[in-house]
Amino acid sequence: MLRIYGFLVFCMLLCVGCQWKLKLNMDDDNSVAVIERYDRIEALYLTTGDFSALQKMNTRYPMETRTLIEDVLKIGKVNDQEINTRFLRFYQDSVLQSIINEVGQQYADMEDVADEMQAAFDRLIDALPGTEIPRIYTQIGSLDQSIIITNNSLGICLDKYLGADYPVYAHYYTKAQRSQMVRSMIVPDCLQFYILSMYSFPQIQRGNVQHNCDMHVAKIQWVVNSILRRKAYGGERVDAVERYMKKHKNCSILQLLSDEILL
User: How confident is the model at residue 18 (pLDDT cuts 50, 70, 90)?
Assistant: First the structure.
């Protein structure tokens, strides 16, 4: 186990001088999506206690650090006197240390995710004019959240995308849940939650409220499938939206998400 952590620390130290961002499109500054690799600085601090890494977390990524500590981990306020020690101790759990190691190995390269993310946002902007690309960053949580949306920022918890066969998951999630905790679901989940933040549940007064909310999610999932040009999400409700859109070819994605279309 010590050899594994030693290798991880060595790799992360090599990365300190490397680029911490993945730029996805350099042609148009107004439509550039960037993946901020906050998880690397976080992992460096949590495995070595490196003070310079902690400084970078607090100075370069203050909002991300506050969100992680206060909203994701819920271990206190970011300005608490002992919060840095509490934060470090929290991740000394052997399961979380193994997750940090696994994230470092599986996500040493995220170019494929970056490419799909850029293409997805390019098409989303075409489908929904006025859409702004959020600030996108990666982090390592504690297996409780997948995507974090706050103040036009989108956080990806890489600990929730380590593969359906990742042994730790078997203790906490069903087989159906684990099937979605894979690398290929990162971009679909990002789009789903981001679109939901723009087009929240409609205030429909008639009909079954829960059904209407479920169908609204299905509409968004169908939009994600359409944007990605692959079927990331399935199920009866998504299929119902598919049939509706084939029958009503003049219905735009904007109308689908904005209007009170009951299915």
Answer: very low
